[in-house]
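Contributing new records

If you add data, match the layout below exactly. Sequence lines come first and carry their own label; structure lines follow with theirs. Keep one chain per record. Anything else will be rejected by the validation script.
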Amino acid sequence: MSRPTLTGERVVLTPMSWDHLEDLCALDADPEVMRFLGPPRSRADVMALMPGRLSPSDDALDLGFWVGHETDRFLGWWCLSLEGPDLAEIGWRLHPHAWGRGLATEGALLLIDHGFATVGLHRIIAETMAVNLPSRGVMRKVGMTHARTDQRTWDHPLPGSEQGEVVYELDRETWASR
């Protein structure tokens, strides 16, 4: 298997490649994009992450990282990463011009459908800082429910980290019944 291109009404997700490096560097260099993730990343930081994002073992499982475009405009990335038997974590990171337009939700739904219908996953989870209300909203819109809030210790805590990390989940049966 290899990751397919996934097409929605406005969002087209294509497998991430080195061709997307410039857009990914600009995305991770934006302090607003990284507000709930940590300090902005340098080009060298993003380049160091790329081999993991382009993992052949993920590709063989039909999982991994995709970049999203609306027409020809770069939106950001989405990922579906194996976390255990029949379990994957979904994530996304979008450029500010894509915020508040339902594009994160559309891309996440494409990956959720792919994960359950094609890959055969039984459960998909997502996590973020409790204070990241926009991402939590996307999680709810795609049908995920709050599973727990974890208190974690960080070397360099971000503002709001004292409220914890939230984990949301969606199982195959719930997805199939919608």
